[in-house]
Amino acid sequence: MLFAFLIAAGLLTAQVKRTEVTNATTAAADGKPLTPDMADSVAVSAPITRTVTIRFRNQADLLVGLEKHVAAEKIRNAVILTGIGSAIATHYHVVSNRSFPSKNVFLDNPTDAADITNINGYVLNGRIHAHIQFANEHHAFGGHLEKGTKVFTFAIVTLGVLPDSVDMSRFDDKSWR
């Protein structure tokens, strides 16, 4: 009885699993200096050829579902334009340092309740690189979407599909500098 009261009062919550991972490539790649003649930025211009809007139901794993639909729709490149909904479990990671090798902190809360206030990112050569923002009554939080983020009421994600000929495969390559 006391246990149920503490949970209902918000005084006892599930433990968030927090894991820090060093995301090292190789010593040579992590120690690579900036390429002197490389521009500070690169631009790609391409039309959106179609949009794909995906609706997820209660209990669906958001990243697993995105991967399934990207494969089924044969999407090689896309912009994740927007996403909304709510979650009953959150799993994401954030960068936790400022020098190479990079480190990430993974935060996994299988009992979290939050609104999904935004999802954005890219599909790069068939690979999803999505960021997600959550909010509860106390604060907003989020980072890189991970498997294990589960939908509560619903979630909706819209992709702007780009031509297959667009090469953005290195856009999230940390050694491309």
Describe this structure in words.
The chain has 177 residues and is mainly beta. It has a domain at 46-162: Hypothetical protein, similar to alpha- acetolactate decarboxylase, domain 2 (60s Ribosomal Protein L30, Chain: A). It contains three helices and eight strands, in the order αβαβαββββββ. The longest helix has 11 residues, at 62-72. Mean pLDDT is 91; it is low at 2-12.
| CATH architecture label name of the domain at 46-162 | 2-Layer Sandwich
Count of DSSP H/I helices: 3
SSE sequence, one letter per element: HEHEHEEEEEE
CATH class of the domain at 46-162: Alpha Beta
Shape: flat
Query: Termini separation (Å)?
Result: 58 Å
Percentage of residues in DSSP E strands: over 45%
Q: Count the beta strands.
A: 8
What structural category characterises the helix and strand content? mainly beta
Helix content: 10-25%
Q: Averaged pLDDT, please?
A: 91
- Uncertain segments are 2-12
CATH superfamily of the domain at 46-162: Hypothetical protein, similar to alpha- acetolactate decarboxylase, domain 2
Describe the main β-sheet briefly.
Answer: 8 strands, antiparallel
CATH topology of the domain at 46-162: 60s Ribosomal Protein L30, Chain: A
Q: What is the C-alpha radius of gyration, as a whole number of Å?
A: 19 Å
